[in-house]
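Example A, followed by Example B.
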Amino acid sequence: MNHTALQPIWDWMLRNLGVGFFEFPLYFLPVVVAVVLVTGVVYSIFDVVVYQRISAKAATKLGLRIMSTYVGAAVAFFVLHRIFHPWINEVPTAAPTLIAFVTQLGCFMVIGEFLTYWWHRLEHGNRFVFQKVHYLHHRVQSPLTIWTNFVVHPVEGLMVMLCLYVPPLVFGAHPMIVVAYAVANTTAMVITHSGYDMTFYPRWLLPAASGHELHHSEKRPTNLSVVMTYGDKLFGTYKRPAAVMQS
């Protein structure tokens, strides 16, 4: 029962994306790019048309710059892989069981939060790392927009990717689980930087946008979590934002 529940979805993914897509070791990169593109367009419409937080010109310029960087990187890696074939993933024909899917997805979210939290904490705790790497992200002032999450130094971008995706790849997670994980953690980080607190968003589990606004506006490093909330609450850096207290 558990085995067959996800099989139609996995068959659809193999049929429409192709086995070659999952043979690419960094197949999660196009997934991240797709999430960024979809959420970026949707939130930018709210930023420009509904709430008029930024101009259409600014949103377009920043969005195109971010997307060209991410799309360019994904395409470059894919082309290099097609030419040199340094590492070919073995692609399973069977889907993971439902229990394995849920359990591993939850575990990787927890691990991803732990590693990204401590990397983020190092960025604020070490003057050299902050001044040479993390400063770029904090040049973006409040109010934050959907693209803020991706204004980062290349070293920071690489480190975040390593923190998030080395664990599932090392443990040999099923590609279907890695894709779901990429969608989940990218969406969480996007919403954290979006500048909008959504009414039904599980702020007890995932970081609120208002909390990260506080992180960008205060000198003392608070609300460092961007994947899940437990990092801040467990390690003493959580500060409850006013916007959440009023909701």
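Example B, a separate protein, is given below in the same form.
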Amino acid sequence: MPESPNSNSADSLTEYERKRQENIRRNQELLLSLNFAPTASLSPLRTPVQKRKAETPIKKSPAKESVNLEPTRKSLRLRGIPAKAALLQLDEEKVEKVRVVEEVRDPALDREFINLLASLKEENHSTRKTRSSPRSRAAKTTAIEARDEQALLSKLQNLRIRHQEATIKVTPERIYSTAFHPSKEKILVCAGDKFGTLGIWDVNSEDSNEESVVHHYKAHPSTISTVMYSPLNNHRLYSASYDGTVKYLDINQEQFVEAYNAKMDDNSTSLINNCMDIDPNNDQLVYISNVNGELIICDMRVKKSEGESTTNVYQLHDKKIGGIHLNPLRPDILLTASNDRSMCVWDLRLMKKNKDSEYQALARFDHTRAVTAACWSSDGSRIANTCFDDAIRIFQHEGDKFDKPIRISHNNRTGRWLTLFRPVWSPVTYQTPPFLIVGNMNRWVDIYSGTSGKLLHTLSDPDRITAVPAVNAFHPNMPIVASANGSGRMMVWS
């Protein structure tokens, strides 16, 4: 009798498979007893493989062949530029580019601050009015008095940071300029930062409060390059900004008043103000320099409604003028420092062009690198400047002749993250041998003799100072020095 195919298939099954088939059969019988329809076959059920749904393809943005997607910062090595070549390129092609995001409305002044300045106005109204009067200066009480440099050194060694906090946060960003109010009763120091904030620190407030009192005002939308008090009205604080405006804080009007606007000046070719100075005998005459090498003399007495131009513009240099300063005793003599590697002395009474259509300077001093700053001493007999060739130079003159300058080796390579070093002379009220201060990359302040160029002393405090004090200023009537760094912090040496 022939074998059935089921028997052959059953004999070919393994023991495991036979038990499995038996379990399936019993399950089928159980389903029948429960009135469930059995499966069509006893073959094992396979779960069908589910196909993945077709995903929507990601649309790739078209390649931007014309755009160079480089990182924000890229080392000189990756760019294939030698370090020395980059520095030379920086000196010759450095241009200040400013992006003004929005216009700044006149900030509301704090009533307490207004009352504070108003109380100091009358007492100190004439303290700087005698800036150009040597006779009255001799009768004044001096802030520091020393007959020689040895006696001066003993006084300088007493300067310390005496406030409780190590440093005081005066502005949110890097400080570009700072100035003291001339008052002896209240020590007020102001500072302008990178983004147009004006900070005013009441140094005496620590005596009565746990924290120092600092007033903040958004005076400009861009960098405040210069802050200074009027030499005639100590309640009037001037500020010049890269946004092309010059403003002053007027306590009488209780607001910031616009004194100059480059956008409204048809004579100027640049909208970026770089430096500012004020005539010591007439604070209505404001002197401004810009990145195109122009000098702008703004007369605030002239009203625009009269149809006359409020400014005179002179093209004095080919590149940015990094510093201007009027001689304290002869305001018609102007000093300029420029990125065209020169420092010049000008007579504002003789501003005539030569045959090459250029203004003729009284004296011109060429350098190998850009001259970053220059200023007259308080007696108007000396000049100090800083240059990118890592030197400070002191010039002394008699009449119209200048002696060979004294050269002081000094690292002036502050880079792009620090404010440029500027020499600051001791004020006229300091009856001492002339001396000057300047910041140091080693996080201290250097004090040099104005006659010999000798390093007299350094103001240092490693426990408190953790950044370079690049910006410095003297109090005009007291033995006090203010220093500021790139993080908006300040300290006072007294």
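On Example B: The first helix runs from residue 5 to 11.
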